[in-house]
Write a structure and sequence with these properties.
The complex is a heterodimer of chains A (381) and B (157). Chain A is an alpha+beta fold. Chain A has one domain (47-345): Cytochrome-c3 Hydrogenase, chain B, CATH 1.10.645.10. Chain A contains 15 helices and eight strands. In chain A, helix 2 runs antiparallel to helix 3 (68-83) and helix 6 (164-186) runs antiparallel to helix 11. Chain B has one domain (3-119): 2-Layer Sandwich (Beta Polymerase, domain 2). In chain B, the strands form two sheets. Chain B has a five-stranded mixed sheet with strand order 1-2-5-4-3. Chain B is globular, with a radius of gyration of 19 Å. Classes of the chains: A alpha+beta (381), B alpha/beta (157). The A-B interface holds A 37-38, 41, 43, 45-47, 50, 81, 208-211, 213, 222, 224, 229-230, 312-317, 324, 326, 328, 330, 338-339, 341, 343, 347-348, 351-352, 380-381 and B 24-27, 51-55, 57, 59-60, 68, 70, 74, 77-79, 81, 100-102, 104-105, 113, 126-130, 137-138, 142, 144.
Chain lengths: 381, 157
């Protein structure tokens, strides 16, 4: 058979973003792959060194454009540790509210794009329709549907408006029966099973060696979820299960993501109940003025000169919709972070592409790469 | 896992290359080591159960550079920070790919952005920047823009 290198991307429906998958094929069989990244590299880590701590939040929405709030949460947790600032409890619950709604929105976006890849058109429209309900909620308290800029060092920008919790519950009530419909549309379809079963298999030890995390790892049966294993914010006070599957293939990843959405609904109901019962401040009471936090109260401490402020290093790890995201923020005095380093889960998941693509056919690439849930913004940063 | 327990469980032959095992916020501990013994330290840490390498980053401290490794243990359920200093005029360290294959892309990134060379890396190519790109953007000497002299014009004097 004839062997050749084939370019899939940067403009290809499979990529879901801007990157290039170079495939070495022997006839129809994949012999080797070499992902080429960097088309979307904006130097976010470098730009962060030139901005105030709160201005970096703007970049976080652009880092991952389908899970902006999860990345804001990641960065804010690390910079608060570096700056020795603690947020009030209500702000932490609001951040969890943001992250879990964002998880559902991100998974719905993935669901819509993925099922279209494998040839099912109707679920695409259903997924996008239901995601819009969550974006409407975001809009009602952050003012934006995509680039929220909601979280601040020391808390969140503003509280949710009156009546928000009831509207949010209505959305959850609408969503829950929809998950059953999604399963009927996909798992009930022969096309789905023929295109997804036993495809893109990546077993648990390979996942660990290759640094693969998130739903891909959990679909291989390894129970690791940072919300449980290394609880941040208020996740240790919330009751939920870790979604698991054991098939390690495309179908397994589908099942894990669907179950994660159900668990997110469960978390959100607890968070909404808590928010109803515990009104309070959403921003730390005293913040240093040099932080440049708009809408933030400035206390006596606020007039501290920056040079008197303690240095520090902040580290945070967040279970983002795509997997485990890490941030490392170095505060060396000065009004800007000295160095910001992010770890994107999709970065590691794409790096392992050789291990779940080689041996399959060219036509298998769209469903397999679709099941990885790619967001190029956070890979290239 | 406490830093003292970790220090005790590391093999004694590593003593000459270890510079310290200390408490560090967010991590079980920070292990500082000399770059000459990097591969031995990686193997010892990997054997302690830290099988998942999460990220590798470089920090430019102007007079020297620091390479940080973040590893996770599924048994201890905790992160560990490994750190080594390399001189700015000879920024090289042994590649971690033989121990953690996932280090591949992280080292490529640290090489092109912070200018740290990883010896015996299987495939040290540009990843995020174009081939032949001659700069290391995350060095402090790489300025995004020079401060500009702004002329302020106003009608109200």
């Amino acid at each position: 058979m004839s062997e050749m290198w084939l370019n899939m991307g940067p403009q290809h429906p499979m990529t879901h973003g801007l990157w290039n998958l170079r495939v070495h094929i022997d006839g129809e069989v994949i012999r080797d792959v070499d992902p080429e990244m960097g088309y979307l590299h904006r130097g976010i880590e470098k730009l962060s060194e030139d901005r105030h701590y709160n201005e970096v939040v703007t970049l976080m929405d652009r880092t991952c454009y389908v899970a902006g709030l999860a990345w804001e949460h990641l960065y804010i947790l690390a910079s608060e540790e570096a700056l020795h600032i603690a947020p009030p409890e209500r702000a932490q619950y609001l951040r969890v509210l943001c992250e879990e709604f964002q998880r559902i929105a991100s998974h719905l976006m993935w669901y819509a794009a993925f099922v279209q890849d494998i040839g099912l058109m109707t679920p695409f429209l259903y997924g996008m329709r239901d995601r819009d309900l969550i974006l409407d909620l975001f809009q009602s308290y952050t003012g934006a549907r995509m680039t929220y800029e909601y979280m601040r060092v020391g808390g969140v920008r503003n509280d949710v408006p009156p009546g928000f919790t009831d509207r949010a519950r209505q959305v959850l009530d609408w969503l829950e029966p929809r998950f059953v419909e999604y399963d009927q549309l996909t798992l009930g379809s022969d096309i789905f099973h023929k295109r997804c079963d036993n495809l893109g298999v990546l077993r648990a030890n390979d996942c660990v060696t290759q640094g693969v995390t998130g739903p891909m790892l959990r679909s291989a049966g390894l129970k690791r979820d940072l919300r449980k294993d290394r609880p941040y914010a208020v996740y240790d006070q919330l009751d939920f299960e870790v979604a698991l599957a054991d098939t390690a293939d495309v179908t397994g990843r589908y099942l894990v993501r669907l179950e994660e959405m159900r668990q997110s609904v469960r978390i959100l109901r607890q968070v909404l109940d808590w928010l109803d019962r515990h009104p309070g401040p959403v921003m730390a009471s005293q913040l240093p003025r040099w932080l440049g936090a708009p809408y933030a109260p400035v206390g006596r401490e606020g007039y501290l000169l920056k040079r008197n402020y303690p240095k520090g290093v902040g580290f945070s790890a967040v279970e983002e919709p795509h997997g485990e995201a890490l941030a490392y923020v170095v505060n060396e005095g000065g009004e800007h972070p000295y160095r910001v380093k992010f770890r994107s889960p999709v970065y590691a998941n794409i790096a392992a592409a050789r291990h779940y693509l080689v041996g399959y056919r060219v036509a298998d690439i769209p469903p397999i790469m679709g099941s990885v849930d790619i967001c190029v913004g956070e890979v290239d940063r | 896992m406490k830093p003292e327990d970790l220090a005790r469980s590391l093999p004694p032959v590593l003593a000459p290359v270890l510079l310290g095992v200390e408490a560090f916020p967010g991590f079980a501990a920070r292990v500082r080591f000399r770059r000459e013994g990097a591969l031995d330290v990686f193997r010892a840490i990997h054997d302690l159960g830290f099988t998942h390498l999460a990220m590798i980053g470089g920090i430019d401290w102007v007079d020297h550079r620091e390479v940080i490794y973040t590893v996770w243990s599924d048994e201890a359920r905790t992160y560990l920070l490994l750190s080594t200093d390399v001189p700015a005029d000879d920024p090289r360290v042994e590649s971690a790919v033989p121990v953690w294959p996932s280090a591949n892309w992280h080292e490529r990134e640290a090489w092109e952005l912070v200018g740290i060379t990883f010896d015996h890396h299987p495939d040290l190519r540009h990843l995020l920047t174009p081939d032949g790109y001659a700069f290391h953007p995350l060095l402090r000497s790489f300025k995004i823009h020079e401060p500009e002299e702004l002329e302020v014009k106003t009608r109200h004097v």
